[in-house]
Structure formats: C-alpha cells, structure tokens
Design a protein that fits this description.
alpha/beta, 8-stranded parallel beta sheet, 4-stranded parallel beta sheet, 22 helices, about 45% helix, globular
C-alpha cells in the first residue's frame, strides 16, 4: 500500500488564536489562567497547549536503540534466600542487581548485612563478569560492602575491568539521610577520594560515585530541588576527587546520578532529560567536552500506598515508562507491596515483568529521546534546568551540598515544599487512588513474606550532626486513619459509621451521597447508602437504629434551602453531630444555627475533618 492517509489534512488548518477564541467562549468569562494553566511545586508554568518545539535537539544519553538495564533488588536479609531470588531474576530477564543493605535508603527495614560471608553467599553462582550490572544501596554503617565485593571479585580471579560495578559511594547522600557523619567533610572528602582512587587503581572502571536525588524526593521535595541537590553533591565529589589527584576527565567518569521516577509522567521525563543538560553545563564550566553520563532511576517511594496496593502497579508502570522515555540507563522498580513488608515472588515478578513488557512489547527504548521536539516536554525541561541551576547556585554559594546540609538550608527548602504537598494531599487536590480517593473498606490484605525486619546497623562514632531529611509516603495520614478503624473492628467487631441523611428524591441526593461515602471511607468510616426516606420521621428513626453519633446531610442545594435546617435541628436533638455535604453558600448562618458543625466539600481539609470525626466516634 503506497497511498498515504490524509487524516487531518482533510480539515482546514486551525491557528492557536482560533483555538483560544473557542476556549474563551467555553469558559464563559472564567479566567483562562486559573482554569487551564497549572503550576508545579517549583512554580513552573504548565500551559494547556504547546506548539512543536522547532529546532530541538535530542538529549544525548543511552545509546540509541539499546534497552535500559533492568535492575532487580536483592534485599532479603537471609543471604541464601537473597541468592535464590537473584538467580531467578537473572534467569527471567533481569540484566542487573541492586544489592540493598540494611539501613540504606528504601531498604524499608530489610536488606543484607555487609559482612564478606553474607555477600559471598548472596552472590553464589552469579557470574559477575557476564555483563550484568551490580549496583549498591548502602547505609553509612554498611559502606564497607563495596570493599568486600571488590575482594570477592579478586578472590574469584575475575578481572575488575570486566565487572560492571556501580560502587554507589555516596557520603553526602548518607549525611543528608541520616543527619550524622563520623568526620567533617574536609577530612571525609580526603578519605573518599582515596577510596575511589583505590578502586580505580585496582581496575574497576566505574562509575563508582552516585549523586542520589532520591533523598530529596523521598522527603517531599520538588523536581528542581532534587536536581539541584544531585548536581551540588556531584560537584562536591568532583572537587574532592580532583583534590585527591584524579584528573577531571577521569573524575567525571566516576560519577553517576540516581533519581526517583514517579507517576507524574511528563515531569519525570523532563527531569531525567534535565539532569543530563545540567551536568553538561558543569562539564563545560570545568573546561571539559560534555559526554553522556550514567543516570539510574528507581520508582518513587513517596507515591506508594499500603491501601489498595495493586494501584501501585499502575503508578510504577507510569514511572518506569517515564524514566525510560527520559533516557535512564538503568531502572529499578520497587515491588507494589513494598510498603507492607518484604515482597514475595509474585510482587517481584510483577516488578520485573513490568519493565520487560515495556521493553520487549512496547519497545519504549527503541527511539532515542522520543520527547525531543515536544513543545510541552521541551518547555518543562528548559524551565526545570533554569530553576534547578538557580537552586544549585544558592547551594554552591553556601559552600556546597555538605555545607548547605550542615546549615539546614536544604532541609528548610525541602520542608516548605513537603508542607505544600501534604496540604494538597490532605485536601485531595493531589489524589491517591485507593487511599484518599475511591477507598475499598472490604479489600483483602496483599501477601508479603513472613520475614521480620532486621535491626538497623548504627554508626559507632558520630562527630557531625544535622537535621536528617525524612523518608515519607504521602498516603500515610490516610493510612493512619484506616489503621485506627481496623483496630476498632478488632475491639468491637464493627467499623465506625456515619449515617447518610439523604434528603429528597434519589436523583437529588445521589451525587452528594456518593461523594460523602468516598469522603468518609477514606478515613475508614463506613458510610452505608440508602434509597431515601419517605419523611423526616422515618429518617430520624433510621438514624436512631444506626448506632452512630455522626450524621451527614446529603442532597441538592435546592433541597437544602427547604429542608436542611429543620432536619439538622431534629438530628441534633437526638444526639447527632451533623455534617453537610457541599458548600453552604448563603445558607451557612442558618445551617450553623440549626446545628450543622462541619461542611464537607471538594477542597476542604479531609484529613483533619476525618480525624475530628474519629474523635466524635471514639476511634483511637
């Protein structure tokens, strides 16, 4: 078939000005900026429509057409079980292993001990020079694991240059996450440079040093903050390596980046493109010709939920796709049950196969930088680069990443964004399906391995202390409410309940009754639906039989104007604490006087409202 499909060419051309006229007509006087233009947590402007970015160049990264490395976590504390998992993963499509050690970021209470015997057992029968990538998740107390791995390579008589070892040496990241260090940076940087030089002298080709932005992401930080910290940490390490006698050309090849990939697909793509542009700018400032750096990705911890964890599969699919399209060299997927405990074989297989399907069936790696030329992604990338560079300059002016952490500069900036995020989640502006929205009170708990968390190793000597960056999940406030509800079931045999006082006919109350049901059940408060009541007396009788102290009026504004005040008075007289679904508008004074204590509506503080409801219902 040689005939080309005309598709859109059959329609007359349309200009952006004509589109804007149609939009303004549809908005009926509502402000364009407020309704259709959004802002990221960095204040970056996101337009509803973009033209093609003319003259855009692809960002140089992963070799065009090649697959990213599919990393699988090795985090079972029993080294024999960990070895079995690793071999199974490699046999079934994984091309790299991330050795997760106890106490490291996102180890989540599990992980390997750093002793040589544990490492040898965990890597038994694994061909370390067979082209697989070995990465590390280290804590301050387990950083010797890299040395023990190097010794294992030597003991097996494997040429170090044939082993793709990503050393993951990360002293600044460790300081940021733990808030402690055995040495000041002036001293530690010398030891760090000696260590990197030692591995290089042994023949390990690197990269050996990671600038890890996950610490900022896990703490609730913004994309620009994550990028700025990563670049600042990399520059600190670059300076330390140069001071330790390593030529800049060699030193820059020893450094790689690790970023979080989350379900905000476009921002994640732009972030992974931006890190390469930012590092190229640093290389140019050092008098070096930029060359592609290694960028690793891990699906984000903060987006994951304990409730309805199967939705995590969708989140991680979006995250992996975005990181892959953004040019990540290797990707590690947190299994969907990770917040619940140590993932079982099913969860690990899903994590692995998610990447395999995107690689082998969707062919996402076949095109180099497929976002190049997209007006939206190019604009986001450009804005992110500018915002991150400005933040990096502030950190650098403070003395670098380490000094900025000691001064609390980075922690304060991240805390401000974290507070904004948590507020948006509490108000359900940022929805978390299965937790804040569309909860399922009858869901079954997902299976995890019956393995107890391990005791976290501790540093014996601490000389430097700063405020550590926290490790959060955004769903935690809603999960705490649901857990309190579960405890009430264990004590009384029933969940706390709200009585939905539906007024009027079914079409008049259904929308707000469904909204209220979703609202209260996000906090573990059961909200049984009704078909309506013949009269007020029948409703009051039903409330008395419900066994709860909380009632929520549900109907249309028109019905509220006629019936809500009278029903609120009657319910209050029978001992109810009365809520009303919807904004009260001009009726607020009359409704408040009639006994309505709280109005629940889109944009209200859901978490605090649900906590107050728990207090009314005696949930602890």
């Amino acid at each position: 078939m040689t005939e080309e499909l005309s598709l859109a060419t059959e329609f007359p051309p349309a200009s952006q000005a004509e589109w804007r006229q149609l939009v303004d007509a549809a908005l009926k006087g509502a402000p364009f900026e407020k309704r259709l233009v959004s802002r990221t947590y960095d204040g970056l402007r996101v337009e509803p429509l973009y033209p093609r970015a003319a003259g855009a160049q692809a960002v140089a990264g992963r070799t065009p057409g090649t697959a990213w490395t599919l990393m699988q976590r090795v985090d079972h504390p029993d080294p024999l079980a960990a070895n079995k998992q690793a071999l199974e993963d490699l046999e079934n499509g994984a091309t790299g292993l991330t050795l997760v050690f106890a106490g490291s970021l996102n180890a989540n209470g599990y992980g390997l001990d750093a002793s040589p015997t544990v490492l040898e057992s965990a890597l038994k029968d694994i061909e370390l020079d067979a082209g697989i990538t070995i990465d590390f998740n280290l804590s301050a107390a387990t950083r010797t694991a890299v040395q023990h791995f190097a010794a294992l390579v030597k003991a097996r008589k494997i040429p170090p240059a044939s082993v793709d070892m990503r050393g993951s040496l990360n002293p600044i990241g460790g300081f940021a996450a733990s808030g402690t260090s055995p040495r000041q940076w002036s001293e530690l940087s010398q030891y760090f440079a000696e260590q990197v030089n030692g591995f290089a002298d042994e023949g390990f080709r690197g990269p050996l040093v990671v600038a890890d932005g996950r610490i900022i992401h896990n703490a609730g930080g913004s994309e620009a903050q994550e990028l700025a910290f990563s670049i600042a940490a990399a520059v600190d390490c670059l300076r330390a390596l140069e001071a330790g006698g390593m030529p800049l050309e060699v030193a820059r090849s020893m450094i790689y980046f690790r970023l979080s990939a989350d379900a905000d697909e476009f921002l994640t793509i732009a972030k992974f493109r931006a890190i390469r542009k930012l590092w190229a700018r640093v290389e140019q400032a050092c008098g070096l010709t930029p060359k592609p750096t290694t960028v690793a990705a891990e699906t984000a911890w903060r987006m994951m939920t304990k409730r309805d964890p199967y939705v995590n599969m969708l989140r991680m699919t979006l995250a992996v796709a975005a990181a892959g399209l953004g040019g990540a060299d290797n990707i590690s997927t947190l299994p969907h049950t990770a917040p619940l405990g140590l993932p079982d074989a099913f969860a690990r297989r899903v994590a692995r196969n998610t990447q395999l399907i995107l690689l082998e069936e969707s062919n996402l790696a076949k095109v180099a930088d497929p976002a190049a030329g997209s007006g939206a992604i190019e604009d986001l990338t450009s804005q992110l680069c500018a915002a991150a560079w400005a933040k990096f300059q502030v950190i650098d002016a403070a003395g670098g990443a380490w000094a900025a952490l000691e001064q609390g500069l980075i922690q304060r900036e991240v805390a401000a964004v974290r507070a904004e995020r948590q507020k948006a989640v509490a108000r359900r502006k940022d929805a978390l399906t299965g937790s804040s929205d569309y909860p399922n009170l009858s869901e079954r708990a997902a299976a995890v391995l019956n393995v107890a968390p391990v005791a976290l190793p501790k540093e014996h000597v601490v000389k430097v202390i700063t405020e550590p960056l926290p490790n959060i999940r955004l769903a935690e406030p809603f999960e705490a409410l649901r857990e309190a509800s579960d405890r009430m079931i264990a004590k009384t045999g029933a969940r706390p309940k709200v009585f939905l006082a539906t007024l009027g006919k079914l079409p008049e109350f259904t929308a707000r009754a469904m909204f209220a049901k979703n609202f209260y059940e996000a906090g573990g408060i059961e909200a049984p639906m009704h078909d309506g009541f013949e009269n007020e007396a029948e409703m009051i009788a039903a409330f008395k039989n419900s066994g709860t102290k909380l009632a929520c009026l549900c109907s249309s504004d028109k019905v509220y104007a006629v019936e809500a005040a009278g029903v609120a008075k009657a319910l209050t007289a029978d001992g109810a604490t009365v809520h009303l679904a919807g904004r009260p508008g001009d009726l607020e004074p009359a409704l408040t006087e009639a006994g309505v204590k709280t109005f629940v509506f889109m944009g209200c503080d859901v978490v605090s409202t649900l906590q107050a409801a728990h207090d009314i219902l005696g949930v602890k």
